[in-house]
Design brief:
The chain is mostly helical. It is built from 6 helices and no strands. α4 crosses α5. The chain is globular and about 40 Å long.
Length: about 110
């Protein structure tokens, strides 16, 4: 993967995609690398859920939807789901998960 080419998608001043349709898995890996992260299976589960939600609703899912996904898909309680989310994306849902999943910067709402 050519990281320079991968990260050529148009982004805003904070690094979020301008057009979520420009997202692909290589771009996600590059964005994760910028954040100092390597995406593991749990991270991909979160990112894939977020992308599917966006495809259906054309808006980034609120963190509560991601927590519900983690609870259902991975058999986690609410606190364990929240802990898992912040273990995978330690600087937060909006700062890292939304950016890596190719969302435009969400407006102010709950981050968990």
């Amino acid at each position: 993967m050519d990281t320079m080419l991968t990260l050529a998608a148009e982004r805003d001043g904070e690094g979020y995609l301008i057009d979520p349709e420009a997202w692909d898995r290589d771009l996600a890996r590059g964005l994760a690398a910028e954040e100092g992260l390597v995406l593991d299976a749990l991270a991909w589960s979160i990112v894939d859920f977020m992308r599917a939600y966006w495809q259906e609703h054309r808006v980034a899912p609120d963190v509560r939807h991601v927590l519900e996904h983690l609870a259902q898909a991975h058999g986690l309680g609410r606190q364990a789901a929240k802990d898992s989310l912040f273990r995978v994306f330690p600087y937060g849902y909006v700062k890292q998960a939304c950016k890596i999943a190719g969302m435009m910067r969400p407006r102010a709402w709950s981050t968990g």
